[in-house]
Amino acid sequence: MMGSSVCNLGILETLSDDAIVEITESYDGLFTTVESLIAGDSSVVEEQELVSHVTTLCKYGLASLVRDHFLSSLQQAFDKGGASTFWLHFDDFRHKQHTDYGEEIHQALCGALEEISIEKQFLEKCLSILIRALQSSGESHNSDAERVQLFSRFRSMLSSTLMTTLPHHFPEILHWYFKEKLEELSAIMNSEDDDTEQLESDGMDLDDKLRSKNGEMDVDQGFSRHDDLVKNIGKVVRDLRSIGFTSMAENAYASAIFLLLKAKVHDLAGDDYRTSVLGSIKEWIQTVPLQFLNALLSYLGDSGTTPSGLTSPLASCPSPSFSKLVTPSEGIVRWKLRLEYFAYETLQDLRIAKLFEIIVDYPESSPAIEDLKQCLEYTGQHSKLVESFISSLKYRLLTAGASTNDILHQYVSTIKALRAIDPAGVFLEAVGEPIRDYLRGRKDTIKCIVTMLTDGSGGGNANGSGNPGDSLLEELMRDEESQENVGFDDDFHTDDKQAWINASRWEPDPVEADPLKGSLSQRKVDILGMLVDIIGSKEQLVNEYRVMLAEKLLNKTDYDIDTEIRTVELLKIHFGEASMQRCEIMLNDLIDSKRVNTNIKKASQTGTELGESELSVDILTSTILSTNFWPPIQDEPLVLPGPIDKLLSDYANRYHEIKTPRKLLWKKNLGTVKLELQFEDRAMEFTVSPTHAAIIMQFQEKKSWNSMDLAAATGIPIDVLNRRVNLWISKGVLRETRGRETNGNVYTLVESISDSGKNESEELLGGDEESERSIASVEDQLRKEMTIYEKFIMGMLTNFGSMALERIHNTLKMFCVADPSYDKSLQQLQSFLSGLVSEEKLEFRDGMYLLKK
């Protein structure tokens, strides 16, 4: 007869009638016996009958028919009983919120799994009876293979039956069951940590503490408080596996672990950027999830040997919780890698989302930057940082409401912070581009950069090495010197061994790197260079600094220029001596002025006695300028009082005697004057400009002046006078009243506080006095220099109709070669053309300039 597992029904055609009758009777008997067996009414007699019927059917090659019928009967019985009953336990949770599950979910799940496990064991027992019957019939020559095959088919049938009737809310039930249990386990572990800390404070021996905390990691021994909980969870997982829900169970407790880990990362990270949290997160991973997983896998029998070479690249500081785990299993190592990657990615996303605030607090937030650096090194998601931070910059910083100074300080902090993350500056280039583009469109960018570089407010060095009085320029120079030069050494000064080490450490540039910037190994971040790049050329920055330096020097009341000398020396290092030559001459002028002023005062001490109305040269301190090397100086007409004018003449004569044939040409509107004003009931001291002093000194002759007469006496244009006199009105020294003539306001000296009535012209006091500059600004100088090219530009636009900025620039360079030749930059030309547009001489449409119609 056939021993094949395939049922050959074609053999029935060759059988006799008696054989067919025998097969029919045996099959009917098999059907009845199987029903009785599955119903639980089996006895020794029925098992013997089953063996007899199976033997008869196998004799005619119908063994596979017997197996299929038996398994089909088991499936029908399980479908009617076990599966439907199992899902009934979870009907009450169909419309419940997960917050209302509580302990009911544990009872329902454990009860359902216990019932279905009993049902499954009974059906497996029935299947074992069939296997023995097949062995008795001689059909099964390999009993072990027969058992494995039938039980595999049975479990697949059982699992498919459950999966086809799976309620949609059951995976969510599993997820929240494991979540609640893991939260409970975490709370127990935290309490054990608190107990351990208490034991440490009590001086308990280290080995005793570890034994008290860890036990032996064998849940059957029950050495620690959390073992019972792990055992209950493990039993649920084991029962779920037994009914074919292995993947669903692992996904459920894995998602719960990751959810708990995410909550822990959020809790530890928070909004405190001054503390590193990565170490605490890694320690918590080893203390709670991995300890749970190790116990769970041990309970399930999944512990294996560690594969060679499979270690976590992040396991740099093992936790005491694993002191007993000499060799972690392969499953634990893989779980460790998964959890650490998830933790790094979660912390990275948190820090990237708050990167703007972190950089605002830099360098105090350096620990958060260091955490982010480690996360990015592991995840490699630098592009996410670039995209997110650029978006934050556009919405929070690059707006009309943000001052240029704030944007620049944030830009410098961004450079410092991202340099710590990316020393080569690859991603800094991408992040800084929108800031640079935006700053180039602001008129005060150059002035703010120079002010930030040279004032004494300090820049806040990332290493904490900045001194309170240092300028950002000094800090950047010091920071640049302290940068490590690894990778930037001259090849000629590197021996063969070091060269081989450097070559072995070589890595290709990231794909985001700009090939025009040079190789990563030959590039370093230059903060000062990046600030200059915003302006476009170092010449513009130097010119702006020269104007600012001139203004600062002219406003000095002494000759203390140590800070300015130090700044110029630092700028010479970066921009070269030729660029700073004029600034050096300006400083030398002050040094020479101090020496000349001392010599003149010494000579005056041996001179003739002063008359009654004459003033001593000792009260005068002068600054003597080499005009050709200074920026254009603002000049205003001013008639000084007689004694002051004579004092200046005497000083100039003595200078001529000392410095023959040189002569002084006074800029009478520049400088400062210290005044003491005596009134009937008070005395007041002021430090003001010569123009303000000349105005108030006219009130020594008479107590009241109208604006016309006062302007004529001081030589000041009336519009300038009306602005300057506001200082004395605001200080309560003068009172203004409306005169009879148009614009002929009357100014009266206030002798006593009781006389200081309310001014009739309140509108004149509505705003602060306009700040006056001694030196023409760079914009004013540029406008004056570019005026000679205005006719050329108008002629070009008349002939060509409309022209782009680049074409106008190239045409001027080509044709304006005579003295003075055209030597302006594209940005300077654009600034001048924008001024012509604002004056409505030109129009700007679609990137083209054309004449205003």
UniProtKB/TrEMBL annotation:
Coiled coil regions, renumbered to chain: none
Keywords from the named record: Cell cycle, Cell division, Mitosis, Ubl conjugation pathway
Entry's Gene Ontology molecular function annotations: ubiquitin protein ligase binding
GO cellular component assignments: anaphase-promoting complex
UniProt key word Cell division: yes
InterPro entries linked to this entry: ANAPC2, ANAPC2_C, Cullin-like_AB, Cullin_homology, Cullin_homology_sf, TPR_ANAPC2, WH-like_DNA-bd_sf, WH_DNA-bd_sf
GO biological process, one term: cell division
SMART domains on file: APC2, CULLIN
Record bears the keyword Cell division: yes
Domain Cullin family profile: from-to ranges: 530-729
Family: Belongs to the cullin family.
Protein's name according to its UniProt entry: Anaphase-promoting complex subunit 2
